[in-house]
Amino acid sequence: MSRPDVAARAAALRADRVPFVHVRVVLAENPTSAKPGDEALVLADGTMEGFVGGTCAETTVRSQSLALLDSGEATLLRITPEPEPDQPGKRVVHNPCLSGGTLELFLEPIVPSPLVFVAGEAPIARALLGLGAALGYELRAYDGADLSGGAAVVVASHGRDEEDALSAALAAGVPYVGLVASRKRGRAVLESLGGDAVDQVHSPAGLDIGARTPEEVALSVLAEIVSIRPRPARGSTGDAEVVVIGEAVDPVCGMNVAMVDTSLHLEHEGRTVWFCGSGCLRAFADNPAAFS
Questions:
Q1: Do 21 and 98 share a domain, yes or no?
Q2: Would you give the DSSP letter of residue 5?
Q3: Closest by alpha carbon to 137, among 120, 109, 116?
Q4: Digit-coded pLDDT (tens) for 226-253
Q5: Which of 73, 120, 132, 169 could form a disulfide with 153 if both were Cys (CB 3.0 to 4.6 A apart)?
Q6: Number of domains the chain contains
Q7: In terms of DSSP H, where are the helices of the chain?
Q8: What does 84-145 look like in DSSP terms, one character per residue?
Q9: pTM for the full model?
Q10: CA-based Rg of the chain, rounded to a whole angstrom?
Q11: Which of 256, 263, 258 is nearest to 278 (CA)?
């Protein structure tokens, strides 16, 4: 995959709200197969598109990238054939399988902005659509679209089609569902929905900040959404579906390997054994007892 192809693929993934890690080689000390400027994309299932080195380097890049998708934090990764102490601002990984060179790569997670749907055309709804982008949210007017990827749904239609929008949001399992209404009317609307709607929907939506204007009410709603959003311990990945991947140790060379289908592995005596590259896999397959 050429650099223009990588750029085009990255743009398509962004448009489709698919999380990935953009990897770029910034230093390559010979002998290495990668060169400065080489790029790749690592998807949440471990798929790697592009080129940033041979199989062993790819194994380390894949494992580190998947950890970053979980944390959402960019890093500078240094992969060395010999052990080195940690360096400020760098993640140093010893990869005994490298051909003798050293690589440094910049790993940047690209995670979609949290998606907030707003139902309604009243002033508060318009204020929400205008304010959310400044907080890093992607705001969309709700038009009956699929809500399953949303971080929040705010119904601010003031009596128009409220039940339909609320029911759709609850059915989709959206983490935050809010109804802009007075406390009395809001409870009546939620009771009409039945089930657990009264407990699941924030009504009146927003934190109590003494809001009066549509813009202030919109601010209070966005503040409530921010306050309850789950935060991974090492960062935030938005609301994209990212699976936290485990790691296994290659029994031949001792490298950490991400346990995803795109990593080399085989079944041995009822368990899955994971490998950094084909050389280690062949060595194990030829004599498993040597690596027990």
A1: yes
A2: H
A3: 116
A4: 988 765 544 333 444 444 457 788 888 7
A5: 169
A6: 2
A7: 3-15, 55-71, 123-131, 162-171, 183-193, 197-200, 214-228, 278-286
A8: ----TTEEEEE-TTS-S-EEEEEEEEE-PPPEEEEE--SHHHHHHHHHGGGGT-EEEE-SS-
A9: 0.69
A10: 24
A11: 263
